[in-house]
Amino acid sequence: MNEALAGILPVAPTPFHADGAVDEDGMRRVIDCMVDQGVDAICILANYSEQFLLTDEERALLTRISLEHAAGRVPVIVTISHFWTDLVVRRAREAETLGAAMVMMMPPYHGAGLQASPQGVFEHFQAVNDAIGIPVMVQDAPLSGVTLTVDLLARMARELANVSYFKIECPFAADKLAALLEAAGEHIEGPFDGEEAVTLLADLDAGATGTMTSAMFPEKIKPIVTEYRAGNLDAALEQWKRCLPLINHENRQCGLRATKAVFMEGGVIGSDFVRHPLKPMSQRTRDRLLELARDLDVLALRWGA
Q1: Which residue out of 167, 176, 220, 222 is catalytically annotated?
Q2: Fold of 7-231
Q3: Per its UniProt record, what InterPro entries does this chain match (predicted)?
Q4: Which residue of 51, 135, 154, 182 is most buried, as measured by CB atoms within 10 A?
């Protein structure tokens, strides 16, 4: 990449057939739909991609399919999180070899009782930093249960040249983003938020330059970022108000199932299957989701028509 990534870098869902098998053609259609949504990059194999429910062979297949099918139309970010440092390094090298523009990773964790020390976390990221020549995004999410202090994140930014993107989606994300930028802003190319953009406006106020949402309706969320960064704060606020009911419903009621439901309704994928032990959403929740999506005229709902 010649320029720092900014804007909206959504997470691609992993489509499955109704029997639970990976839908390879569906993955290609997901990539095509996201390109048509006008995204600035696509992230694959993240938590919202059900990465924790995929075999190593499926990960390799989806990485190859996604990068080959994107074919340089947009940058692709490959998530490589794992507790074992050697495996994370292996995944990082494979992603770079296949053409990934960036890798994203969480700190090593395996439940609340098995976490690395702060120095161990630093060395985990350092090993990836030293193994590849593309940027690394740190995912600071409550799912890990690992507390990544501002001091530790700032140290990574200062001392690890490739660790230059940070996705902050912990509680009070805006304050943490602001503190991180104050501590090491000159070493940070991409301060981002996540959590389906539920805190986006506050995070933009704090200095975020983009967001990593789901793939459900990035074409509606992206203008919040672009208008804000252009100085059109009133326009950003109005778009935020329009999007917030659907953002909130996704974040609080649906989770990763939301994009799949909307994509299936619009013909992007053939099934919204999620792998066990995840369960389908209730019909009540689904009905409200689709109503809110139709009210916003979400592109994915008519993409396959």
Answers
A1: 167
A2: TIM Barrel (3.20.20)
A3: Aldolase_TIM, DapA-like
A4: 135
